[in-house]
Write a structure and sequence with these properties.
This protein is an alpha/beta fold. It is built from 10 helices and 12 strands. The strands form 3 sheets. Strands 3-2-1-4-5-6 form a 6-stranded mixed sheet, sandwiched between helices. Strand 1 (21-29) and strand 2 form a beta hairpin. Helix 5 (132-139) packs parallel to helix 7 (165-186) and helix 6 crosses helix 7. It is globular, with a radius of gyration of 21 Å.
Length: 339
């Protein structure tokens, strides 16, 4: 039983618009690119007020190199006997059905889950997600950063096995409950976002199967390198919703990004482009597919290239920053209401 970490019961009635149940999720993966795979998954099911109903954990054979073993600890030998994703897809779906998916940096966990279901020619039964990073910002929690360990420490939750899916999900469930109750007490609208299922998947032929070794005797990294674009092809089932905030103008150096700013991307990125765009949308930015005089910022790792966006940025005087700088700025995007 999880300890109730709230200090007092909420005197206000529970918000009627809040969801009726949550699935707190953590997945460990072979990497961050779009053709990387899930190697373990855990779900804590919570009721409407954040009380734990049950939990579930499984390892998953990714049929390829397990990636950074020094982080997640799951070796080829351990994963070889684990079920394939298609073998656990139905049970995983039962755990997620009719609930809001809750995760720390939820866009990443959702993207990985959606892609696994697309590969299995199925659709995950998730329609909304809630990111605990976004919720901590809404609550104004005095955190030094947005790491899970910082959120856990704020609520006195003890981490036992970092980067183990079951323990990470437990820690997040324990930290989410007092966060949810604080939001209900203060009448805060939960930062719920739509989950867009993926409909098409084209497998990368270069991805090595689990156990396949390179000529040097180590496991080949094949098609899951963190740089550039893998050969997998994705198409979301629906378009992104329109940005709800007005464009506040151009980005200014040494100032934070502001919700509503129009951001365009050009060239290869080390983090998958879709993931970067989803992070920008989740922060309240407008992702622009083309560059105009209204564009607030261009993100590119090659500012000297001759792509049409870079050329136009130079013509219009649009600010240009690289992916690393953009990632730092995404950690603290100013609300649209701030001057």
């Amino acid at each position: 039983m999880l300890e109730d970490l709230t200090t007092a019961a909420s005197p206000a009635p529970w918000p009627a618009a809040y969801p009726q149940g949550y699935a707190v999720v953590d997945v460990e993966t072979t990497g961050l690119a779009r053709d990387d795979r899930i190697i373990s998954a855990a779900v804590y099911r919570l009721d409407a007020r954040g009380e734990v109903e049950d939990h579930w954990y499984t390892m998953v054979n990714p049929e390829r190199d397990p990636g950074p073993v020094w982080i997640h600890g799951l070796t080829t030998e351990v994963l070889e006997g684990a079920p394939l994703f298609q073998d656990i897809a139905a049970e995983f779906a039962d755990r997620l059905a009719d609930r809001v998916l809750v995760a720390h940096n939820a866009v990443f966990d959702w993207s990985m889950i959606a892609r696994e279901y697309a590969r299995a020619e199925r659709e995950a039964p998730v329609r909304q997600r809630l990111c605990t990073i976004a919720l901590s910002k809404e609550l104004g929690l005095p955190l030094p950063n947005h790491k899970l360990e910082s959120l856990a420490a704020h609520f006195g939750v003890v981490q036992q096995r970092a980067h183990h899916a079951l323990d990470d999900a437990r820690v997040l469930a324990e930290a989410f409950r007092p966060s949810l109750r604080a939001a209900a007490r203060d009448g805060i609208r939960l930062p719920l976002l739509e989950c867009r299922p993926l409909k098409e998947w084209s497998e990368s032929p270069a991805a090595p199967h689990i156990g396949r070794q390179s000529g040097s005797g180590g496991y080949s990294s094949g098609g899951y390198s963190s740089g550039g674009y893998p050969s997998g092809s994705w198409r979301p089932s629906r378009k992104r919703p329109a940005c709800p905030y007005p464009n506040p103008g151009r980005y200014e150096a040494d100032k934070p990004l502001k919700q509503g700013m129009r951001v365009a991307f050009s060239g290869d990125t080390s983090v998958d482009r879709e993931l970067l765009e989803d992070r920008a949308v989740e922060a309240g930015l407008h992702v622009a597919t083309s560059l105009s005089r209204l564009t607030s910022l261009l993100v590119t790792n090659d500012p000297d290239s001759s792509t049409s966006k870079v050329v136009k940025a130079k013509q219009f005087g649009t600010p240009v920053i690289d992916e690393a700088a953009f990632g730092q700025l995404l950690r603290d995007v100013a609300p649209a209401s701030e001057k």
